[in-house]
Amino acid sequence: MRDVIYLDRMEQAETLLKPQRVEVLRQLAAPRSCTEVAEVLDQTPQRVHYHVKQLVKAGLATQVSERKVRGVQEGLYQAVARSYWLSPRLVGRIGSRDELVLGHLVDLAEQVQADVAALDRSSELPSVGVSGEIRVRPEERQQFLAELQTTLQDLFTRYGGAEGDAFRIALACYPKGESR
Predict the structure, then answer these.
(1) pLDDT tens digits for 17-39?
(2) CA of 163: how far to CAs of 45, 124, 159, 160, 166, in Å?
(3) H helices, E strands: number in the chain
(4) Is the pTM of this model over 0.70?
């Protein structure tokens, strides 16, 4: 199971943004049959099966195995990711993320976007935005991350008092993927 899947197709978003399907998908965090999900959600297996098939068709869930129950083959399904990030141009995001995984950056980006949107832009606001690329050899990764953490901790210690204007610092450090 992947941690995060970025959804940028309207068909996937439409499939996901139905309250009953979201509930079904949540139940598929671990492999389950439609009958098991139906029992938890107090629905008929046929109704759940319909929603599961739509989730599978959209690539949001997958059949992970089959088993024989009372002489009938029953599929076990599971969500393909823990979180689904819908492209901002579509709708938004569903699910929570752990700080230690790449998906946390999605939450951070959304928080920065919400904070900036809430600012009073009628006056000049002191802010800085920096972006760059650093190349680090695999054997130097730990040293790089330790230095980055030390540098930031020094700033937090030096300027972390209770008085003065509050600034939020959001730093995202992640491996650069291939261009889309």
Answers:
(1) 888 999 999 999 999 999 999 99
(2) 59, 21, 9, 9, 8
(3) 6, 5
(4) no
Phi and psi, residue 60, nearest 5°: -100, -15
Amino acid type, 3: D
Other beta carbons within 10 Å of 90: 16
What residues are paired with 85 via a beta bridge?
6, 93
Do 66 and 12 form a contact (C-beta atoms < 8 A)?
no
Query: How far is C-alpha 174 from the geometric centre of its chain's CA atoms?
Result: 15
**Token code pair at residue 30:** 């671990």
Would strands 81-86 and 2-7 be described as parallel, antiparallel, or unpaired? parallel
Cα-only R_g, the chain: 22
